[in-house]
Amino acid sequence: MLRILFSVMLIGSLLWGTGCRTTARRAAPIVVPPVAAPSPLQVTPVVPVPPVPHPAPGTNQTVALPGPRLAPLVAVPVYYPLAQWVCVTNWVRTNGLGRTVALTHNGIRAVQIVSPMGNLLLAAGSRVVRHEGVEVALGCAPQWHQGYLHVHPVDASRTLRPLLQPPAEILHTNRLLVLDPGHGGSNPGTRSCLNSRLEKEFTLDWAMRARPLLEANGWQVVLTRTNDSDLSLTGRVAVADFQQADLFVSLHFNAVAQPEPSGVETYCLTPAGLASTITRKYEDNASLMLPGNRFDPQNLHYAAKLHRSLVRQTGAVDRGIKRARFMDVLVTQQRPALLLEGGYLSNPSEARRIGDPAYRQKLAEALVRALP
Ligand SMILES: [Zn+2]
Fold first, then answer.
1. Residue 350 sits in a domain of what CATH number?
2. Which residue in 6, 154, 225, 250 has the fewest CB atoms around it within 10 Å?
3. Ligand 1: distance of its center to the CA of 251 in Å?
4. Is position 208 within any domain?
5. How many folded domains does the chain comprise?
């Protein structure tokens, strides 16, 4: 199992950086701060940047940013010496999260957390953990320290805990969901390698199929677009602000230059203090507390539910739950928010499945099963 885990991790590390290119319009210098620097002298300086940049020329700018309601940016510590990392065994026991089991497989020592919320496997050197059948990215790879496996404190509080203990503040008051079909209008997104059908068409179809199913479950569902219209990234967030949505889910499909990659993946905002899984050459300042970071536990809670449902419902390759700061539809949210990539239009067999309405119905049903 660990061999599979690390093979997938290696492949994943090679392939991360793929995907549709239109989820962000930020043009910032490449700055990837060290997360666990060997010396306090290497702590990344705090460089305040606005959470949402000015849209690129020519994009829809008709909707104003909800600036006054945003939380101020707060700098947070990035560097923690290993002595301040969290001992997994003690942390699980003292927080009543379950118990830990030491494993050795193919010479790799690992720890499995056995909990009422499922089993979670961690291994030193791996930024990927496996929880209940799906992969979840950490900010830092766990390390052995004084004979025990340790994790970065923010990984413990913002990734492991929401998986092992559902966050208390699930914002369900009105069950109002904003579904965001990615792209639209002059922004087509990616295209099928088989027949040039466009991502914007498939994301809208996915959302339109999901809406009645979710409404039957008692959700109020608002779509950011219901036709082939242009909508800026900030405009999509503004729809959720105007509706005072409880949850925001953006729908996309992937594509890369190679035909081999396939599978589903899910993104949520990187917690402050950690490096992102994927940066796509955009700035990744780990010291910034962004508005969406107020919902870190809920972001991951919903990401795990939806991602697991997508994997189970479609049988697609699990490409994991990943963290990013460059996706503008996640950065300024005032509610839990995540972004789903429903498959690779550049992979011939997956493009064929995505082109099949029955498969897109499965994608829609996956949302409903995750949001009962
Ligand atoms: Zn997209």
1. 3.40.630.40
2. 6
3. 7
4. yes
5. 1
Q: What is the pLDDT of residue 344?
A: 98
Residue 129 lies in a domain: no
Distance 77 CA to ligand 1 centre (A): 32
CB within 8 A of 154, min separation 6: which ones?
139, 271, 272, 273, 274
Task: Outline where DSSP puts E strands in 211-287.
Answer: 220-223, 247-254, 264-269
Domain membership flag for residue 115:
no
Q: Which residue has the tokens 């966050």?
A: 167
Residue numbers of the domain that contains 210: 176-370
> How many A from CA of 181 to the centre of ligand 1?
9
Q: What is the DSSP string of 189-212?
A: --B-TTT--BHHHHHHHHHHHHHH
Question: Does residue 95 form part of some domain?
Answer: no
Q: Compute, in angstroms, the gap from residue 341 CA to the centroid of ligand 1.
A: 7
The CA 218 to ligand 1 mean position distance, Å, reads: 28
Residue 22 Cα to ligand 1 midpoint, Å, equals 6
Q: Tell me, in angstroms, the distance from the centre of ligand 1 to residue 3's CA.
A: 32
Ligand 1 mean position, distance from CA 62 (Å): 21
Whole-prediction pTM value?
0.82
> Within a 10 A sphere around the Cβ of 195, how many other Cβ atoms?
9
Answer whether 259's CB lies under 8 Å from 349's CB.
no
Instruction: For residue 182, report the distance from its CA to the centre of ligand 1, in Å.
Output: 5
Of residues 140, 159, 158, the one with CA closest to residue 150: 140
Q: What is the mean pLDDT of residues 238-244?
A: 96
Q: What is the pLDDT of residues 322-366, one digit of tens each?
A: 999 989 899 999 999 999 999 999 999 999 999 999 999 999 999
